[in-house]
């Protein structure tokens, strides 16, 4: 029996509707709305596209939204001063600096300069620490989106064996920590495999829930997956062009074959991808509520 395909597009739409309704309620009560600033340095076409998408979504949800474009030759000192300005601005709850930055700017220094309570990407070491001890105000966007897909897909996580393929700071490590927590949508037993693991398939075949963020197209094949497992594919790999001149995308999972074995699977595109911006908006709302003293 083929797997249930869980649509990130549909789940993201549901969450955005919930956010929009909550923003309207908070606005009626406090006469304030969440504020998000996206800082773009230079004119990298991919970065321009990402930032435009984030701003558009924020406005649709009723946020106060600021797009701050800076020239590619801005100094590190000037950029840090700009972040400090937004750290002190009460109308801004979320600060996002679009990466990558020009080579003359230290990305780590810039990310660490953001007030952890406004760090809606949740990359600041303070937020990483909060995540590990289970006290995060908000969670990194892509891993948080994965958890939402599992919960809303009806997957039982408590007591399940989760195997994570990949150990990046953006996906692998945080999703492992999220699923370990003694919390709803988590409480799992977690194994992390990576490039140093001998016989990756030995572990992936044990997974009730398999989360793949390997960065290699079609890396996980059907013989590496247990019958009835839930499979979340985080990978987005360009594997050529369509006759129409569009990029051909593939995930890290051999979708066509694995879907015949899994109970649930996410497609690429249209799976985890649409969740990331939505979870950024959810984090900005959480930061706003935190600033109002609302748990």
Features of the shown structure:
295 residues; alpha/beta; Rossmann fold; 2 domains; 6-stranded parallel β-sheet; 3-stranded parallel β-sheet
Topology (SSEs and partners):
Elements: E1 4-5, H1 8-30, E2 35-41, H2 45-60, E3 64-70, H3 76-87, E4 94-97, H4 107-113, H5 125-132, H6 141-152, E5 161-165, H7 172-180, E6 189-193, H8 200-204, E7 209-212, E8 230-233, E9 237-241, E10 247-250, H9 255-258, E11 264-265, H10 273-291
Parallel strand pairs: 1-11, 2-3, 2-4, 5-6, 5-7, 7-8, 8-11
Antiparallel strand pairs: 9-10
Helix pairs in contact: 1-10, 2-10, 6-7, 6-10
**In terms of per-residue confidence, which ranges show pLDDT below 50 for 5 or more consecutive residues?**
none
Average pLDDT, rounded to a whole number, is 96
Major sheet: size, sense and barrel closure?
6 strands, parallel
Q: In total, how many domains does the architecture comprise?
A: 2
CATH homologous superfamily descriptor of the largest domain: NAD(P)-binding Rossmann-like Domain
Kindly identify the CATH topology of the largest domain.
Rossmann fold
* Rg measurement, Å: 20 Å
CATH architecture of the largest domain: 3-Layer(aba) Sandwich
Order of helices and strands: EHEHEHEHHHEHEHEEEEHEH
Which percent range fits the helix content?
25-40%
Distance between the termini: 43 Å
How much of the sequence lies in strands comes to 15-25%
Q: What general form does the structure show? A: globular
Q: Identify the strand order in the major beta sheet.
A: 1-11-8-7-5-6
Number of β-strand runs: 11
Classify the secondary structure makeup into a structural class: alpha/beta
Number of helices: 10
CATH C-level label of the largest domain = Alpha Beta
